[in-house]
Specification:
267 residues; mainly beta; 12-stranded antiparallel beta barrel; 1 helix; 55% strand
């Protein structure tokens, strides 16, 4: 039995270790090469916001990088890195009714991503499924809503304080049928400084063929409670303004304008 175990180790583990050491592969790497674009209403994030006098919005999401690739360089920082992984999120809207908080809508997202970074440049390719539902706290009339889309985004991050990004999205399957193309542009800026409270502003603009009004604009202004070099990974308080096509799938063909205050939590 010991000989058999030794043979199996030599047959499987040696090539495995060689591949991961020589090719720069890493299982379950931490973080993501493409910085999260948290002004995007459908980004993978953990957030809670309060809208108007009775509305409550919650986002619960996370990602798992399964495989990382980077060049092998002794004692040096890699000049590029790439990850492949899975992501998922739920987006919920509630309202206050006396002492209850009925759930009105629930949108669910699951997808895969391949993304990388080289110096200040970042790139991301995603395949995503999203569906949307009315909950029992809604008085609306539900529609069938299910979509799969491919999105390609590029980003420029010259330092810890600034991120700008743009992207292209195309629907590959959709119920109901709508026009497939969408464009995205956005960015985040954290005020430089050595403070535990860092002011920031974020913006996300989306133009969709399907939408009755374009672009949809989401603006955030707030404070990050941070370790100064990593404000973009921190716990954030913010005020948000949104105007444009409703991001909730059941109401995608309606136009809304909202004001809210909220918190984002690091993932």
């Amino acid at each position: 039995m010991k000989k058999l175990i030794l043979i199996l180790n030599l047959f499987f583990l040696v090539p495995y270790n060689w591949a991961f050491e020589q090719l720069g592969l890493e299982l379950l790497p931490s973080k993501r090469p493409f910085r999260l674009t948290f002004a995007d209403p459908r980004e993978i994030r953990m957030a809670l916001s309060f809208q108007g006098s009775s509305g409550i919005n919650a986002s619960i999401g996370n990602y798992f990088s399964l495989l990382g690739i980077k060049p092998v360089s002794e004692g040096l920082q890699p000049d590029w890195i790439a990850h492949a992984g899975l992501e998922g999120a739920g987006y919920f809207t509630m309202r206050q009714a006396d002492s209850r908080f009925p759930l009105e809508t629930a949108d669910g997202l699951i997808g895969t991503y391949f993304e990388g970074a080289s110096g200040p440049f970042q790139g991301q390719l995603r395949f995503t499924h999203i569906s949307a539902h009315l909950a029992d706290g809604s008085s609306g009339v539900p529609i069938a809503y299910s979509r799969e889309f491919i999105s390609l985004r590029v980003g420029y991050v010259p330092g810890e304080e600034l991120q700008v990004y743009s992207g292209l999205q195309v629907l590959v399957n959709t119920v109901p049928k709508v026009e497939p193309w969408a464009l995205q542009l956005g960015g985040n800026f954290f005020l430089p400084g050595q403070s535990n409270l860092t002011p920031f502003v974020s913006a996300d603009l989306k133009w969709r063929q399907e939408s009755p009004e374009n672009p949809a604009i989401h603006l955030l202004m707030g404070l990050a409670l941070n370790n100064p070099p990593q404000a973009f990974r921190s716990f954030r308080f913010y005020y948000a303004y949104f105007t444009g096509a409703d991001p909730r799938g059941q109401f995608y063909n309606q136009v809304v304008t909202t004001h809210s205050v909220g918190i984002d939590m690091q993932i």
